[in-house]
Amino acid sequence: MNAPAQQDPSLQITQAAPGVWGLRLPLPFQLNHINVWLLADRMADGRDAWTLIDTGVASNLTRGLWEQVAAAFLGSAPVRRVIVTHFHPDHIGLADWLCRRFDAPLAMTRTEWLLARMLCLDNSDEIAEAGRRFYGAMGLEAPVLTALTARGNAYARGVPVVPATFDRLCDGDRLRIGDRDWTLLTAGGHSPEHACLYSTDGQPVLIAGDMVLPRISPNVSVWPAEPFADPLAEFLGGLRRLRALPADTTVLPSHGPVFQDLHGRIDELLRHHDDRLAEAERDCAQGGRTVAEITQAMFPRTLDTHQMSFAAGEALAHLNHLVATGRLQRHQRGDDGAWLFTRP
């Protein structure tokens, strides 16, 4: 399938690889865009079709842009399926609307669907209390703690609906999409069962989602539901697995431009986290540190509430990894119950 000759000039659509087009959608955050992918496909009866990968956030603006895409780019070809790489709002926020709009099934890994479905439905008192205990143990200043705990279940506001049914994707699955064969590769850390798609037809191509980004380090955080988790170990393992792909793989990331140097970028990310771990270990050797203190050391700038939730979660991910590997130990401070991390 070729791209239509007529396109709406306001849409930011570019061809990223044979049969693959990238659509840049705005985000209402400091990270101000997401790349979603439009793959030329075929229906079972041979008709031209499209597979969509990721959705953008749930907003009237994003819905309006998708309507422009439908009119100016997709043409009369149906959407065969909507694939979501992981449960974060910028990737799944409009999944229910897109699936209904195009009468197409949702496809994603089971863990990501379960987590998205659970979080969008859970407005219980228990989830709010878990957040209060979690952020209260970080040693944060009172105004920051109040702002974080007042948000409640922010996820449900960003993802109002997740489809009640889905087609399960598993690691190692082979997908025929148009003229290309794709292999599904999963990795944890940034999210529990993040899906990447890899094709070796012609030039190797990796639709990387948020696992490998060209300009920023993907967020790796601990969250209230699992306060002692070690997502950094999963993330580093996932990066090493993706590094086994060919060095000349074209990487299609969810944020930032398409790039080529997969091995070099993964090596940079591995060094970045090694450096962060070493810095946190050194800081905690000087009498012990709270999560709040390590957050300030890692992110020495003014953060809004949204940014603080990710920054504190990422600081704790590094501290939990240091505990899991025996380089630090965790205590509970007597006066306020905050976690204190010290050298063994």
Description:
The structure is a single chain. The chain is α/β, with parallel strands linked by helices. It has one domain (13-342): Metallo-beta-lactamase, Chain A. Helix content is 37%, strand content 22%. The chain has a seven-stranded mixed beta sheet with strand order 1-2-3-4-5-6-7. Strands 8-9-10-11-12 form a five-stranded mixed beta sheet. It is globular and about 70 Å long.
Provide key terms for this protein.
single chain, 344 residues, alpha/beta, Metallo-beta-lactamase, Chain A, seven-stranded mixed beta sheet, five-stranded mixed beta sheet, 14 strands, 22% strand, globular
End-to-end Cα distance: 61 Å
CATH-level-2 architecture: 4-Layer Sandwich
CATH class assignment: Alpha Beta
Q: Pick out the low-confidence regions.
A: none
Number of domains: 1
Q: What can be said about the biggest beta sheet?
A: 7 strands, mixed
Strand neighbour order, sheet with most strands: 1-2-3-4-5-6-7
Query: Can you count the helices?
Result: 11
* Helical residue percent band: 25-40%
The Cα radius of gyration reads: 21 Å
- Give the total of beta strands: 14
What's the helix-strand series?
EEEEHEHHEHHHHEEEEEHEHHHEE
* Shape annotation: globular
At the fourth level of CATH, the homologous superfamily is Ribonuclease Z/Hydroxyacylglutathione hydrolase-like
CATH level 3 topology:
Metallo-beta-lactamase, Chain A
* Averaged pLDDT: 94
Structural class: alpha/beta
